[in-house]
Amino acid sequence: AGEPKTWTGSMFGEGVPLAAFRTILTMLQNDAKNMEADIINKILADKPIVVLDHFEAVAVAPSSYVIQGQPYKAEIYLTASDSKSSPDVSVNGNKVPTDNGKGVYTGGTGSVGTFTWKGTIRVKERNGNIKTYETKPQTYQVAAPSATVSSDKLNVIYAGIPNPFTISAAGFPNINASITGGSLSGGNGKYMVNVPGSMVGKEVSISVSGSNDGKTVNLGAPKFRVKAIPAPVAKVGGYGGGDIASVQLKSESEIEADLDDFPFDVKFRILRFELTIRKPRSDAITISGQGSNFTGAVKNAINAVSPGTAVIFSDIVSQGPDGRQRVLPPLVFNVK
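and the corresponding structure tokens:
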């Protein structure tokens, strides 16, 4: 038996007609092309069927709103897309329309707050399977349209009572606020400011800061003047003096301190007062009263009044929530 033939001998060796060489070479070329196609299909079997025919330069910035002193950053790169395809694009599970191969998402802005969304793209692979690509969670903030209007002459805080404040800053969903010389409580933009009576006549500052891109930004520290609560007006039965019926005066049980035309509901206490009764053709008598109620000698003296008597409340000392004591104007009644 002869030696086994090699591949080249079998294909192009002795006994093979010269005219067959061209056919054999063509067969080998076809085999190589088929093998190349099989290898490419194997490599690309799990790749999406995408023809990148549209290129575009893109600039993306985390925000177009930048606070003074903070750097503005943006990423600039080249993107490629298949303008003739219509991929399956959805946001939070809801399909969105596509335009030139790009999904177009329009977020709702019917209510204020911070909203998060995530996009999903599904593309068919060469082997018929569906490949899913997801974006990172994206957030956007919806703020109510607003304007800030303030009076430069009324930047006032009243001592001893809670002063309501609304504190906000555009572009900062979370802010921090603090005050010098007082206390500040609350959150979500609504705060109460309290300043003691010892700060009357002085200034306090409310410092506001917010977080932007992981950094704390100072947003300002406006100053406010601390004022005392206005002095109240003493009244008996709602009357501030003048003529009063005897039966009306005798039915009253206390002296009050009212603060009219003031935007805050402030309560005052009467600490003490002097009651003077001056009857016709009689010497005046003066009785000291403690607190606001008519008791003891004060009540007895009021019950003994008759028409023509002058009833005078003087040295009326009141105290407000700021702890400051005030001497109020006297009340003079003419009993009828």
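(Above: one complete record from the training split.) The chain is about 15% helix and 40% strand.
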